[in-house]
Amino acid sequence: MRLLSAKAAAEYCNYNYKHFRALKIYGRGPKYIPIEGSKMVAYEINDLDEWMRVCPKNTYIYKPSQQDTNKPINIWSRK
Asked: Which residue, of 16, 17, 19, 43, is most buried by count of CB atoms within 10 Å of its CB?
């Protein structure tokens, strides 16, 4: 079992670290392992590969609206 830090996992998945962290916070990221006695987490490479296989690359925190493609909207905000 090979584990990666959050920054290494973001790089492995070709994501910006802050975006990758936000995906975790909102429950849209890959499965992670909390490191006991710390706020840090680790990711197993097999879990990252599975997440990338089943999760489309367009897993965005923000995506363009249909009216204005230059203005991002939060897809998790409730109406």
From this structure: 43
Q: What number of H helices and E strands is found in the chain?
A: 3, 5
**AA identity, residue 48:** L
Residue 9, Cβ density class (10 Å: 0-12 exposed, 13-18 middle, ≥19 buried): buried
What's the half-sphere exposure (Cβ side, CA atoms, 13 Å) at 71?
A: 4
Angstrom distance (rounded) from CA 38 to CA 48: 21
Tell me how far apart the alpha carbons of residues 20 and 18 are, in angstroms, rounded to a whole number.
5
Mean pLDDT for 54-58 is 70
Using 50, 70 and 90 to split pLDDT, how confident is the model at 60? low
Cut 0.90: pTM above it: no
